[in-house]
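Reviewer 2 asked us to include a model.

Predict the structure of this chain.
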Amino acid sequence: MRNLIIVVFSFFIALVGYWLTGKSGYEKKERDAVWSEYLGGPHKSQYSSLDQIDTSNVSELEVAWEYNTGDPGAMQFNPIIVDGVLYGISATNEVFALEASSGKELWTYVPEKEKNFLTNRGVVYWGNGSDERILFSYKQWLIALNAKTGHPIQSFGDDGRVSLKSGLGNNVEDKYVMSRTPGTIYEDLIIMPLSVIEHAGSAPGYIQAFDIQTGELAWVFHTIPKPGEFGYNTWPKNVLEDGIVGGANNWAGMAIDRDRGILYAPTGSAAPDYFGGNRKGRNLFANSLLALDANTGERIWHYQFVRHDIWDRDPPAPPILTNIQREGKKLDVVAQVTKSGHVFVFNRETGKSIFPIEEVEIPASVIPEEEVWPTQPIPSLPAPFSRQNLTEDDLNIYSPDYDSLLKVFRNSKKGRFVPFSETPTIIFPGLNGGAEWGGAAVDPGGIMYVNSNEIPWVEWLIPTSLKKDSFSRGQNIYRNSCGSCHRMDRTGNPGSGYPSLVNVKQRLTQDEVSKIISNGQGTMPGFTQLTSIEKKELINFLFDKKEKEITTDLNTKIDSSNESEKVPWKIDGHRQFRDSEGVPGISPPWGTLTAINLNTGKHQWRIPLGNLEKYNGKESLPTGTENYGGPVATAGGLLFIAATKDAKIRAFNKKTGKLLWDFELPTGGTATPSTYEVNGKQYVVIAAGGGRLGLDKGDSIIAFALPESCCKN
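Predicted model (structure tokens):
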């Protein structure tokens, strides 16, 4: 009788547990074995407890299946897998569902007939009984699809979609807003990241929660506080009213502690991002980690990584929730990687830093309108995972342009948190990290694995009003809207993802350019605030046409040059510190992979990530390469990562950093892989779309598995 009672009681507990967790795959014992959420789960730890593929057999991995989307272009999405179905999104934002064991297409959904190449890092699954949904973003819309059919759910918002501008206020109709990163699920809410433009005229980057079933707005957190809210006094009064300042958006994604009901959201830089004269002050909650009540959006605690950011040093990836051991105690922590190559680790409930943080004094700006914050925080531990300082000894002695590199180096300002000015300034790690959006992996032992870019950038400011009267209307619009990325002379920086526009008329039609200006392309935002007349003037300038008089109402705005009166300084284009062959101006490694023990803050190993054989040098050591996409750690003792310029996916021994397997992809896999199990077989899958780092464009989704002979019991 006693045993029967125990069995019945155990069944009741299991039933209650299933009822509480629902069908969405969050049961604790299975949490790490499924990949049903972006970057592996709510903790964003990029870890899997699957161990069929391990250090002894990984060398036998082979292609299990390949799916082609039909739309070659950069893909950054991390696939999710639910009940044997893989969900992803193409370079043109076409959502697809595949049979995860074979790659067979089950359905596709195309948001618009006219295709747009917009960066999107994945989709979201939510299920409640027979109601199963896939949610994703397209332009300004959050769209809900039936997970079984791919058809829009008509009861969600307006015919299956809601606007991501819903909670941003009344003055955002003509402002660019979208989301590149999947939202975060908490019960019946989806909490959305936002991407906005990063210069003057940006929308505010408020964090919004929507009801998954109806699409109704549930709550909003003001990342730029309103009067009476905490942090309002860290900005000029009424800072949003002139329409210049915005941003402070969570673009990188979030993590959630569902047991505690706490959402962890890192926020981006305020806009304009490289000049802060319009937003003097500390600027909460830009460049911060926010801990919010997931039910209401109320702030629990925050930590600001960069005060009054004028270097675009915002957190580039979701935070990671994990456990560490300190002084014999197990601690629940949240860890955040940064573009500067640092890791901050906090107590999940209190926000108290686990390791000491030093306040470092920084130099004042020589720009008269700018007021930098006098100190910035640097963690004492963990040790940085990217080099922090450069000397002449670090320059690339094998470069044919060594003398020119040395001259640029000597004539540039250097050092961390040196304010930009009219004098060239070398910023290292560069504007693309350190860490990037691919994030880091952390295993249950508290070991973090993070890839880093090791390429300096050279930046300087120019006055926006420089010879303004001698510019055409189109040129003024170009300077204010395009010049900071494509450079004022239109030569761009293709290696950094900013193509030259000098001969754009030889590659694109005027209609194609007009579409890109309005909608954006890849990671470029759309400039929806430009009027049709302004777009025409801009296109005339890009196509080297003579200006024509345009008859219009006197109230119609015809150019954006008056912006220079309010934002007097801009970045004169972005430049990586490279030689004439496109090779980084410093010695290798140009990309690294580091294992960090979060329990102690010490490094366990550090290796170059990727290799360009042409530039190996005398010792033929791997060079490492610039890299985009993150790693995945497994219980099989492995670390999987693609991301590199040499277009390979690799598996390392996570204890030692030893390379155990690699495979050359059709083109670069600049995305984070996923791993999952179907019918007792473990797979590793990666999106290979290239389109960055000078790589050819592709459209492949490739899954790997062990041969059948390895999987038999």
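The CA atoms of residues 14 and 202 lie 49 Å apart. Residues 1-29, 548-561 have pLDDT under 50 and may be disordered. We have added this to the supplementary material.
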